[in-house]
Design goal:
The complex is a heterodimer of chains A (322) and B (318). By secondary structure, chain A is an alpha/beta fold. Chain A is built from twelve helices and 14 strands. Chain A has two domains: 2-183, 3-Layer(aba) Sandwich (Rossmann fold), CATH 3.40.50; 196-321, Rossmann fold. In chain A, 37% of the residues lie in helices and 20% in strands. In chain A, helix 2 links the parallel strand 2 (24-28) and strand 3 (53-55). The longest helix of chain A has 15 residues, at 6-20. In chain B, the strands form two sheets. In chain B, strands 2-1-3-4-8-7 form a six-stranded parallel beta sheet, with helices on both faces. A two-stranded antiparallel sheet of chain B has the order 5-6. The chains are: A alpha/beta (322), B alpha/beta (318). The A-B interface holds A 25, 51, 56-57, 59-62, 64-75, 77, 92-93, 96-97, 101-111, 141-142, 144, 165-166 and B 90-96, 100, 102, 104, 109-110, 112-114, 117, 119-129, 131, 138, 150-151, 154-155, 157-158, 161, 314-318.
Amino acid sequence: MKETRYIRAINEAMSEEMARDEDVFIIGEDVGGPGGAFGATKGLLETFGAKRVWDTPISEAAIVGLAVGAATQGLRPIAEIMFIDFLTICMDQIVNQMAKIRYMFGGVYKMPVVVRTPCGGGLNAGPQHSQCLESWFAHIPGLKVVMPATPYDVKGLLKSSIRDDNPVIFIENKTLYGMKGEIPEEEYLVPIGKADVKREGRDVTIVATSRMVHQSLAAAKVLANEGIEAEIIDLRTISPLDKEAIFKSVEKTSRLVIAHEAVKAFGIGAEIAAMVCEEMIDCLDAPVVRVGAPFVPVPFNLESLYLPNADDVIKAVKKVTR
Amino acid sequence: MVNKEKLLELLYLMVKVRRVEECLLEIFAGGKIPGFIHVGIGQEAVSAGVCSSLNPDDLIFTTHRGHGQALAKGIDLKRFMAEIYGRQDGFCKGKSGSMHIASKEAGVVGSNGIVGGGIPISLGTAFASMYRGEKKVTVCFFGDGATNEGTFHESLNLAALWNLPVIFCCENNGWAQFTPQKVYMKVENISIRAESYGMVGLTVDGDDVLKVYEAAGKAIVRARKGEGPTLLECKTHRWFGHYAGDPQKYRSPKEVEEAKGFDPIPRFEKFLIDAKHINADYLNTVEARIKSEIEEAIAFAENSPMAGAEELFNDVYA
């Protein structure tokens, strides 16, 4: 094992897959010489040359569209979009084109595109650079949505995403880029669609994503001092959702809290809550409680009030365990 | 000088596209085809002229008004018809219908129901050809209306910058759905926009199939040699409305009649007869051949089964 930062793990995943498969290339704004706005592609231009790493104009629809077209011809593009907020500029290419080409054209095309993009607040980047929009993409059949929370998961899942023949919206987290964690020296993959139990516990299930996995782990420590043992399920993949992992844990604990940074209303927490209520309401000993951001844009100045945190998770757990 | 074989191919393709679309209008009016269809009757010279210059492994992107382009590229008429009927033997198992036809084998990467939606994707197939050191070129068809979408700007800039082997073919029929060009655009010739991207741009008479063929041929040669993309504007005329059944209340009957005056088919037939390449009998033979191809295609489509319920869930993911 070795200690690596989340951002380095991303870089290693791309580097390994580019070495393994010549059809893999990177396209995006500032991904070449500058090495990406956050440094994810640092050194890849030097290692693999200009044929494999393409700096583009600020043209998100052209970036994603080019990736889609290249994928119809068997290439495996990794498109970097600097902030998830900017995916709104290329939504047609993602939603009407990339997600539908396989189905619409009768299964003749594979669509091995990875769109890498960071989400989340925490950097005081304001309303247009801080959102969590994973539920937008999870709502679209044809897309996979991956949202890893640790260096280990981000590397293994990015490698799996690059090898996947379907389009993957790969959502990183800006505040986690500097996070350190252990990863194996040798090659490994993390499968898409499998949640991970980050902490075992008998009293309550907390289903969390991205930064909220760490907030939930912090909350669990505090709760343990009060005799409440929380089980933390890190979804890792939003779509396809690992229903089995969620149900298995809820069967054990009979209590469910869902924690995500995205606005609570209409978020993935609503989907999970509905799913559990539809299929296993008899297992529940308390109503499902969601933790998420309030229904407001992300403010530049009041971000700390906006962002859900460990205290919010603790409060939610107390609601379902009292 | 265009050889006789090619001249006859151009004639055949134009007449075929015309007759297929006339037939589609009839079948649609009879209620056998669900949804909606868009025909490009009057615009056949563009499809035939451009696609005749392409190799079988070259690629095209078409639009909601894309029957002509797909047929001229060589899409199989039987499976084309089955697709429009929504049947299992269609190119896309009936899931795409008229507006989203694709045929990997014919190099019709896909038709697009989103105006301007295919332009960025065409960069990618051209990119793949360059990436692999292949000589394939891509032609992306779109209408005049699409040139006001942001994707047009983003894509032409990037294509010029990277010298991608792509031809942007603007089939300018003067109408963006129900709105005439002078209402939505200050410039008359869309091709002048090419200059701002550092790209070659030219406007040709899109109702003169030979002019289209020659201009497209040059652009394709340039793209194949790695000398960069072209914006080729073909000015043509749409006879019918935006969609089949559109009463065209926004357009005077006089203007429609004038558009019909530009009919590219009799014009080319006259040229061929005057130059003694063909006689009137030849035209009858072509019509008869196409009639039988269409009858065969309709029979094939009508006998093809509807998709089963299990097909609903197929091909969402690979």
